[in-house]
Amino acid sequence: GQDSEPGSAREVLVAFEGCVTEQRDVLLGPYLRGWRGLIRFLNSLGAIFSFVSKDALAKIQIMERYCSGARRDEYRTLQSMVRYEVAHGLVDTQRRAEHPDSGCRTVLRLHRALRWLQLFLEGLRTSREDSKTSAICTDSYNASLARYHPWVIRKVATAAFCALPSRNAFLETMNVGGPDEAVAMLAEALPHICSVYGITEELYAQHELLDLP
Ligand code: 1PW
Q1: What is the pLDDT of residues 32-61, one digit of tens each?
Q2: Whose CA is nearest to atom 11 of ligand 1?
Q3: Is residue 137 within 6 Å of ligand 1 at its C-beta?
Q4: Secondary structure letter of residue 75 according to DSSP
Q5: Ligand 1, atom 20: nearest CA belongs to which residue?
Q6: Does ligand 1 come within 6 angstroms of the Cβ of 48?
Q7: Helices (DSSP H) in the chain: which residue ranges?
Q8: Is residue 30 a contact partner of residue 18, using CB atoms and an 8 Å limit?
Q9: Per-residue confidence at 103, pLDDT binned at 50, 70, 90?
Q10: Where in the cell is the protein located (predicted)?
Q11: Residue 134's closest CA among 124, 144, 149?
Q12: CA pair distance 139, 52, nearest whole angstrom
């Protein structure tokens, strides 16, 4: 669809579902499509969220360039990307220098944000009807992504969360029907997001890439 269409959370689910192969490889194409869908959704929440989505979008674009570039075969899966970049010394491990935008460090930022998303959606799914979306969002952020952000970003992000609509209105914006349908969709989607997150975390841990600058 077009970028101006509201989009449905279901597209995001389908993309993340299609990420993991039988060999437990993570396909970058669907991974980035899932992210694109998320960004579209974030933007539909209002201008205040474009601050949050802008950096993620820049990172998606870096990855899309790799995936359509001369070395696209190496960037088919997360596993082949790590193998390729590590073997060819394309990853800065101490400070950003020769390879400031390696695929490995770029995906690591998206990966950390995915943990936030996972906690947020899980909180939303299991919350009571009168819960505050902003509180769920703040708690999940503080439990995950916040530790990687400097004070000023934490402040701006937390301020943006206050603009989130009520729980039920938020579930409606997901465009999958009423709140009950949205909660059911989340229950279906979360295991897939968890699985992508878990495989990535394990892969990065094996290669000692979890602290890339
Ligand atoms: C409603 C729940 C939505 C979850 C969507 C996740 C999007 C998260 C993006 C947060 C971005 C905040 C501003 C940017 C900070 C960057 O410095 C930071 N990027 C991320 C994605 O955390 C680190 O990237 P950098 O500076 O090392 O290139």
Answers
A1: 999 999 888 888 887 777 877 899 999 999
A2: 52
A3: yes
A4: G
A5: 109
A6: no
A7: 9-17, 28-44, 50-68, 78-87, 103-126, 133-142, 151-161, 167-173, 179-206
A8: yes
A9: very high
A10: Cell membrane; Cytoplasm, Cytosol; Endosome membrane; Golgi apparatus, trans-Golgi network membrane
A11: 124
A12: 16
Query: Under a CB-based contact definition with an 8 Å cutoff, are residues 187 and 67 in contact?
Result: no
Q: Is 153 in the pocket of ligand 1 (CB under 6 A)?
A: yes
Whose C-alpha lies nearest to ligand 1, atom 8?
113
Q: Residue 5 pLDDT more than 60?
A: no
95 class by beta-carbon count within 10 Å (0-12 exposed, 13-18 middle, 19+ buried): exposed
User: How much distance in Å is there from the Cα of 162 to the middle of ligand 1?
Assistant: 17
DSSP element (H, E) containing 22: none
Q: Residue with the nearest Cα to atom 12 of ligand 1?
A: 52
CATH numeric code, 9-206? 1.10.3520.10
Note the pLDDT tens digit of each residue in 146-166.
999 999 999 999 998 998 999
Ligand 1 site, residue 146, Cβ cutoff 6 A: no
Q: What's the DSSP call for residue 166?
A: P
Q: Per-domain residue ranges for the chain?
A: 9-206
Residue 206, burial from CB neighbour count under 10 angstroms (0-12, 13-18, 19+): exposed
Look at residues 53, 174, 195, 68 and name the one whose alpha carbon lies nearest to residue 113.
53
- For the ranges 3-12, 100-109, 187-196, 197-206, the lowest mean pLDDT is seen at 3-12
